[in-house]
Design a protein that fits this description.
4-stranded antiparallel sheet, alpha+beta, 39% strand, single chain, 80 residues, globular
């Protein structure tokens, strides 16, 4: 599994609807948080190893209405 974090900027007034769409319609979604600062949301996704991260972000996530931009981080290891 690949762990992917994506920082998301939303159009004004769409943050909650974007979060609900991501949670409800994108099965790879683990968690979505509203955050303060330069971005509006932080989303965590788990993708199968063979899945193309770039295609997932551009073909799936960036097609959610209300998303203006994304910043993608790929996690290598989890430390507990």
């Amino acid at each position: 599994m690949q762990t992917l974090f994506v920082l998301i900027k939303c159009a004004l007034g769409t943050t909650y609807s974007v979060a609900e769409t991501i949670m409800g319609e994108i099965e790879e979604t683990s968690e979505v948080y509203s955050i303060s600062g330069e971005h509006d949301l932080l989303a965590k996704f788990y993708l199968p190893q063979e899945r193309d991260v770039g295609r997932f972000v551009t073909d799936v996530l960036q097609h959610v209405e209300g998303i203006e931009s994304t910043y993608t981080l790929v996690a290598f290891n989890a430390f507990a």
